């Protein structure tokens, strides 16, 4: 019965595994926030796209707002194998994860990442890429605030220059998440924590082709953040949806 359940929900578990690692969801949408990805990201290619979106978010945040608190989350990810998916699914089933709380409560998300890291340690799952990542930054004498070798998540002091270097030049880094925590809102082009008329105006700039975007990561984030109604098309309907909610 458990095997059948896992088989029928394999896509969900791929996404939830990444959600633990990324600390944002790849499938679910919170009832109060628009911070999650959907199931197009729940495969190898989609996860790479998801990482580009997160890196774009971080780059645009640094460029437009600055350094929020000097910390960042770095993910050097696990290889997604059937065994990893199955064990993650078993963990989710046995621990009764509250997905909405995971999406909206950074402390809860971090506690579950720590628990998942311990669980993976007990059953012998470890990110080999994470070991190589730590070797690649050995000369920088970094002091980790949090170090989860099995999951592949690290939180440490990280300035803008270092973040860009890790994103663009380190082959063992999947993404750098600015601020060292789960963002309140990933659909937020002006990075003030809410999706409102100011974001609608920026989406209009995006549609006009005059929203400044430096590289592909920023383009992927802008596309993701501008798709308010999640129909995979950026158009005036996305602007209208924000404005109607603001009334």
Average pLDDT confidence is: 78
Kindly provide the radius of gyration, computed on alpha-carbon positions and rounded to a whole number of angstroms.
18 Å
Kindly, what is the distance between the CA atoms of the first and last residues, rounded to a whole number of angstroms? 49 Å
Would you list the SSEs in sequence order as H and E?
Answer: HHHEHHHHEEHEHHH
Notable characteristics:
247 residues, alpha+beta, Type 1 dockerin domain, 2 domains, 4-stranded antiparallel sheet, 11 helices, 53% helix, globular, disordered N terminus
Describe this structure in words.
The protein starts with a helix and ends with a helix. It contains eleven helices and four strands, in the order αααβααααββαβααα. Helix 2 crosses helix 4, helix 3 packs across helix 10 and helix 9 packs antiparallel against helix 11. It is α+β, with helices and mostly antiparallel strands. The N terminus is likely disordered. 53% of the residues lie in helices and 8% in strands. It is globular. The chain folds into two domains: 185 residues, no CATH class; 61 residues, Type 1 dockerin domain.
């Amino acid at each position: 019965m458990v095997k059948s359940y896992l088989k029928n929900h394999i896509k969900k578990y791929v996404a939830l595994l990444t959600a633990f690692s990324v600390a944002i969801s790849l499938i679910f949408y919170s009832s109060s926030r628009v911070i999650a990805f959907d199931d197009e990201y729940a495969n190898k290619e989609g996860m790479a796209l998801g990482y580009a979106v997160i890196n774009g978010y971080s780059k645009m945040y640094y460029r437009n707002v600055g350094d929020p608190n000097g910390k960042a989350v770095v993910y050097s990810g696990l290889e997604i194998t059937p065994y990893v998916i199955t064990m993650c699914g078993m963990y989710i089933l046995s621990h009764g994860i509250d997905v909405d709380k995971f999406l909206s409560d950074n402390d809860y998300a971090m506690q579950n990442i720590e628990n998942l890291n311990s669980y993976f340690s007990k059953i012998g799952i470890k990110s080999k890429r994470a070991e190589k990542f730590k070797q690649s930054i050995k000369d920088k004498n970094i002091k980790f605030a949090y170090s989860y070798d099995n999951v592949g998540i690290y939180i440490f002091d990280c300035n803008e220059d270092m973040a860009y270097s890790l994103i663009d030049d380190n082959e063992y880094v999947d993404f750098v998440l600015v601020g060292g925590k789960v963002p309140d809102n990933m659909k937020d082009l002006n990075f003030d924590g809410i999706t409102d008329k100011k974001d609608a105006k920026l989406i209009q700039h995006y549609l006009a082709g005059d929203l400044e975007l430096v590289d592909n990561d920023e383009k992927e984030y802008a596309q993701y953040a501008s798709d308010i109604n999640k129909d995979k098309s950026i158009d005036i309907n996305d602007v209208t949806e924000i404005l109607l909610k603001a009334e």
